[in-house]
Amino acid sequence: MGQCGITSSKTVLVFLNLIFWAAAGILCYIGAYVFITYDDYDHFFEDVYTLIPAVIIIAVGTLLFIIGLIGCCATIRESSCGLATFAAILLLVFVTECVVVVLGYIYRAKVEDEVNHSIQKVYNEYNGTNTDAPSRAIDYVQRQLHCCGIHNYSDWRNTRWFKESKNNSVPVSCCLPSISNCSGTLTRPADLYQEGCEALVVKKLKEIMMYVIWAALTFASIQMLGMLCACVVLCRRSHDPAYELLVTTNSYA
Questions:
Q1: C-alpha–C-alpha distance, residues 97 and 113, integer Å
Q2: Under the cellular component aspect of Gene Ontology, which terms does the record hold (predicted)?
């Protein structure tokens, strides 16, 4: 009966190691996705520490690949030292992912304040040229999120670019894609996106942070199961003489 329990735990442990390898790839992908997406919106927040959860996620993903390798070798070789190391590293990663969840919630709450603080400045720096980074950022966001201005298209009236251009129009990135020959003129407001960008940028960045939080929670749960199985195998091995004899016999064979 004891041998059956150990075999079941070992089977689950090997399966979990394969999941860890898959998880490593998924976590690295999520971390890279957060970096790339935040790079598109980096002009709308100034706190670089917002990316800390993404950095930790990538580091955890890399570590999970190593953990999976250690776990497979330890399980196949029946190594008590290897399994103990495996369980200890899993505990460390589990704690790290709990930290990621906490940081994710903290920075998710700060996103709105960061965007509110920065967005007016970015719009005031707009000059309508592709060589200007703030201008590219605003045009990208307005096209991607289907928005115009901070709260609505009328916010453009207060920008330096609008006052200097004196053509009573907003950037063409505010134009609805279904409207041909749209020039962004305010005499035809129906041709423009009606929703402002501030709320949509905040929503987008909060969604991205939630991806990090849910990924960390999901894989933390899997790692807890991995720690449990490793501990079961270690405990059964140390307290079951029949299993120890079987391992020794197999080793000599």
A1: 25
A2: plasma membrane
Residue 124 is given by DSSP the state H
CB neighbours of 16 closer than 8 A, spacing ≥ 6?
Answer: 71, 222, 225, 226, 229
Q: What is the pTM of this model?
A: 0.74
Assign 97 a pLDDT band (cuts: 50, 70, 90).
Answer: confident
Number of CB atoms found within 10 A of residue 84's CB: 14
Residue 111 burial by CB count (10 A; 0-12/13-18/19+): exposed, middle or buried?
Answer: buried
Q: Which residue type is seen at 122?
A: V
Rounded to an integer, what distance in angstroms lies between the CA atom of residue 8 and that of residue 31? 34
pLDDT at 135 over 90: no
Q: CB burial class (10 A; 0-12, 13-18, 19+) of residue 251?
A: exposed
Residue 33 and residue 125: Cα distance in Å, rounded? 27
Across the range 114-129, mean pLDDT stands at 85
For residues 116 and 141, the model is more confident at 141
Token pair of 119 as six digits: 């967005």
